[in-house]
Amino acid sequence: MQGTTGTAGSTAQPATAYPPTDRTVPTRSPGRASYDRDMVHSILDEGYVCHLGFVRDGAPVVLPTLYGRVGERLYVHGSTGSRPLRMAGQADPGLPVCLTVTHVDALVLARSAFHHSVNYRSVVVHGTAYDVTDPEEKRTALDALVDHVVAGRSRDSRPANRKELAATAVLRLDLREVSAKARSGGVNDEPEDLALPHWAGLLPLRKGYDAPVADPGLAPGTALPDYLSAP
């Protein structure tokens, strides 16, 4: 999934940046926004959970869910009975959504309460989500979802059977109206606060894996795969 480019059925190479729109230009700290395609892809590929927002019965709903990227498309999946996936299948022409992914890299502790912050990287995607009905695209999307969690895992697990595919719905969201936003650096205290006797600085956050814990029912002789034993 990582490293793929373009859209299924297309050989055209995308531009290096997404075009800004009224919805993707932030009103606050616009200098932190970026439309660079590589930056957007790197933030998406590093995450695990996205938040999918849509409107149901006139009220906003935001759901956390797994996702996967294939070139210029994002895929999310769920039960065929879940509301957003049902709505996308019933809506014409699809379900308007907003999808977000965020990484917190550090906590910023300032001398003043007002200037406490976080260093972060985020992506916001606006668009219309569509129900994936083509069987080949659906399998590609589900493989991407599995490989997004652990690269190479789709080749090392049983693929979904016909019954499981029938019970699983997949949404497709094209990466067209997209922006990234990030904060980095240190504390931004006011000059008059610099002499205050309060500790200030960054608390960096790390993301990593602990040692794998094998399922007690593993078949005899099943070895730990290389992609889990690598540091």
Number of helices: 5
CATH class: Mainly Beta
Which superfamily, in CATH terms, is the homologous superfamily? Electron Transport, Fmn-binding Protein, Chain A
**CA-CA gap between termini:** 20 Å
CATH fold-level topology: Pnp Oxidase, Chain A
Q: Can you tell me the residue ranges where pLDDT is under 50 for at least 5 consecutive residues? A: 1-11
- In N-to-C order, the SSE pattern is EHEEEHEEHHEEEH
Query: Which structural class do you get from the secondary structure elements?
Result: alpha+beta
| Biggest sheet record | 6 strands, antiparallel, barrel
Q: Order of strands side by side in the largest beta sheet?
A: 2-3-4-7-6-5
Rg from C-alpha positions?
Answer: 21 Å
The averaged pLDDT comes out at 88
The number of domains: 1
Helix % is: 10-25%
Strands, total number: 9
Name given to the CATH architecture: Roll
Shape descriptor: globular
Q: Beta-strand level of the residues, as a percent range?
A: 25-35%
Notes on the protein architecture:
β3 (59-70) and β4 (73-79) form a beta hairpin. The protein has one domain (30-206): Pnp Oxidase, Chain A (Roll), CATH 2.30.110. The model is unreliable at 1-11 (pLDDT under 50). The protein has 231 residues and is α+β, with helices and mostly antiparallel strands. It is globular, with a radius of gyration of 21 Å. It has a six-stranded antiparallel beta barrel with strand order 2-3-4-7-6-5. The protein has helices at residues 37-46, 83-90, 135-149, 162-166, 226-229; strands spanning 33-34, 49-56, 59-70, 73-79, 95-109, 117-131, 168-174, 177-183, 201-204.
